[in-house]
Amino acid sequence: ATPMALMAGTGRGARMGILIKGPEVLESTRRIDTVVLDKTGTVTTGTMALVEVVAAEGEDEAEVLRLAGALENASEHPVAKAVAAGAAARGALPAPGDFANVEGLGVRGTVEGRAVLVGRPALLEEWSQPLGEDLSQAMKEARNLGRTAVAVGWDGRARGVLAVSDTVKPTSAEAVRSFRELGLTPILLTGDNETVARAVADEVGITEVVAEVLPEDKAEVIGGLQARGRAVAMVGDGVNDAAALARADLGLSLGTGTDAAIEASDLTLVRGDLRVAADAVRLSRRTLAVIK
Ligand code: ADP
Ligand code: MG
Predict the structure, then answer these.
(1) Which residues form the signal peptide (predicted)?
(2) pTM of the model
(3) Whole-angstrom Cα distance, residue 107 to residue 142?
(4) Count H helices, E strands: the chain?
(5) For residues 233 and 154, what is the distance between their CA atoms, to the nearest angstrom?
(6) Dihedral (C-alpha) 64, 65, 71, 75: value to the nearest 10 degrees?
């Protein structure tokens, strides 16, 4: 490939809202046959809203929300922002004492001297706070509605469930159609629950789903596909996608995403519109065809 033509392709990309790390990136785009898409913030807007609060038998809903909100206030995760905003709208939130992010699982810390956990049931189980029948049922119902549900516990007991809703970006289904037209197989990859992931996948026309994947394992999913001979593009926005973006044959980040994702990627889609990922593949194929 002549450097001149690649440079021209890069310039054209910039005008289309695609920032390309270097001219050689266009070369690696040529072989791509699979596009792995992160769910939250990539296929969906990632702007979540709190839609339901369920308290366990004998617990107080307002208190479940207040303590969860206080802790989530310290986290940047889309689920955390929804919980904190929903809680703050219903009353003042105390400042947390200790706080720790448990990547891909939730948060833990102290609020008013109580040891609080918010996140996936697996996180609460790790701290010997299994969900009772009532809360398990509430989680299941929320997930069947396509909502992300998280559990809240403190001082040795699971106390409630919070459900947040996310919305699929209006452009995602069209982007998936474009990927297929280009001969690319789309796969949805997420740390979220399988039922929720399926609901989102159905809505945008994806049939392959890899769900409940911890952040550190996302890169391994990419590696597994590569080991089976696939040439993989990964599109993601989060800190938890950075390793997978770096591992992929082509990493695409969203300009609306985190710095870590942008740094780890080869291409950045400035406006966060997934359709532009298909444009990028088309552009590089056209640029390289001209060169040949
Ligand atoms: P994704 O892969 O869809 O971007 P993550 O890996 O960031 O999702 O998170 C996976 C799951 O872990 C979330 O769906 C949520 O259930 C839980 N989780 C992660 N962070 C938090 C948090 N701060 N509060 C509550 N739950 C969380
Ligand atoms: Mg994400």
Answers:
(1) none
(2) 0.84
(3) 20
(4) 12, 13
(5) 41
(6) 140
Strands 34-38 and 106-111: unpaired
From 83, 105, 131, 172, mutation site for ligand 1 pocket: most ligand atoms within 8 A of C-beta: 105
Q: Measured from the CA of 189, which atom of ligand 1 is nearest?
A: 2
The share of the chain scoring above pLDDT 70, in percent, equals 98
38 is catalytic: yes
Name residues contacting ligand 1 (CB within 6 A).
Answer: 38-40, 72, 75, 77, 79-80, 104-107, 118-120, 148, 150, 190-192, 215, 238, 240
Q: From CA 56, how far away is CA 140, in angstroms rounded?
A: 14
Q: What is the pLDDT of residue 31?
A: 87
ipTM of the complex: 0.93
**What stretch of H or E contains 197?**
helix 194-204
Q: What domains, with CATH codes, occur in the chain?
A: 3-45+168-291 (3.40.50.1000), 49-165 (3.40.1110.10)
Residue 3: which pLDDT band, with cuts at 50, 70 and 90?
confident
